[in-house]
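Minutes, project check-in
Item: structure for the 253-residue chain
Input as provided by the requester:
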Amino acid sequence: MVKRPLRFNNRGTSGIGFCIAKAFLDSGATVIITSRNDERLKISCEKLAESYKERIFGIVLDNTKVNTFEQAFQNAISLIGGRHIDILVNNAGILGGDIRTTSVTEYDNVMNTNLRGVFFLSQLFGKYMKENGIEGNILNIASSSSLRPAVSAYMLSKWGIRGLTLGLARAFAPYGITVNGIAPGPTATPMLLKDTSRSLANDTILGRYALPEEIANMAVFLVSGLGKTILGDIIYMTGGSALVSFEGIDYSF
């Protein structure tokens, strides 16, 4: 019998998160996606429900509000009839926090969304998996920015994700919980491509933006049985950005 896992995709309403949710559904999983925007969540669930009516669910979750995580988690369990969740994808993230101009408020918003929320969601799910004997997965969406000297809250948060992935993998491995990360480079998502251009060309060594579907395919591989010997690693999908790690960033102050 093919196991049909239940996957919790934190921020799965656009870009990479949406494509990961779809790829998981294509692989036979039941998926719960989150967003802090109720309308965006509803639209995304409706799109996915056109093909996966019985296996897609959504809950409102704000990564900056850690005190709501436990209740949101219980709501998720209720949505799926008390079944176990065995995969967590930490995908929520926002840009910003340039060291030259950022305020304390902006810095805190970026760090709380991108790192603090991931830390405490992983804590919650790690305990849940351990207590229920679930040999599951935690997959963190990092960034090629963690290869560069950090000059923004965003870049710093992705350095944190890189270190947290290593630490979680070491802590959870004895319980059969596999933790890894994916670090995309420039990817064709609404966060980066805000204009109406359809061109994927850019100045990376690859010569184009990555497609979110390409990132999603790697996510499926890493949480499958084929990825079990990959542990505590970050898979860099950078289009060659890793080869020129200090270029393309303005370090003037």
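Outcome recorded: DSSP finds six helices and seven strands in the chain.
No further action items on this chain.
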